[in-house]
Amino acid sequence: MHEAALIIPALNPSEQLIPYVQDVLAEGFAQVIVVNDGSREACQPIFEHLQLLNRCEVLTHEVNRGKGRALKTAFQYILAQPPHIKRVVTADADGQHTVKDVQRVAEACVEHPEAMVLGVRDFDGPQVPKRSLLGNKATSLLFQWLYGQKLKDTQTGLRGIPVRELSGMIRLKGERYEYEINMLIYAVRKKLEIHEIPIETVYINNNASSHYSSVRDSLRIFQRMISGFPKAHKEEKDSAP
User: Fold this and answer.
1) Partners of 37 in the β-ladder
2) What residue ranges do the domains of the chain occupy?
3) Strands, DSSP E only, in the chain?
4) What are the backbone angles phi and psi of residue 61, rounded to the nearest 5°?
5) 4-236 — its CATH code?
6) Residue range 15-41, pLDDT digits in tens
7) Which residues fall within 8 angstroms of residue 110, CB to CB, at 6 or more apart?
8) Which residue would you say has higher pLDDT here, 210 or 47?
9) CA distance 105 to 19
């Protein structure tokens, strides 16, 4: 864990984010980077507390700029630091990703250093909200049809990424949730191994704290997958012998 950093984009998080970060740091992560993505004023004490923790850095967007931009801000921060971080793990701030699963993804990154690691949820359980089940099933099927890569969970926010891929990912389009699909398209285009590991499926209060819009953000994701297909198809043809 001493070569891994955890990145957490956060919009109006609860106070539970503080012990969560403390637990992650206790597991030996080199650093935790929390991006305050324009949270309301009432949340400022949470970020002030986090900033006081050893090996925790809080980056701030004065206004909400979206999850994609928050990830890019953290990636830029990592690349500007001395090169002691070899891999990053991204996780959500809403409690969906347990500390144990964050640790497991980081360990899988060590075992598969060339790969993007995805923590995949089981969508067949009774606790899964219908909007999450239908949205992920649809995007997974469309992604496989367009890009030829079968992924069980295209919308997971728990991912492990080699640091050497961050400079390329920063240049990708997308400021909000569609950016995470762009990351997967990037991985397919570069022929990166995508390694999936099962994680606990956690939905708190039917996922009420999520800032994901079932209609707006799903449309962005579908549009991005479709618009990215011609370029990916052309690159595949150009690379053929």
Assistant:
1) 61
2) 4-236
3) 4-10, 31-37, 56-61, 87-90, 116-120, 159-162, 194-198
4) -100, 125
5) 3.90.550.10
6) 999 999 999 999 999 999 999 999 999
7) 87
8) 47
9) 20
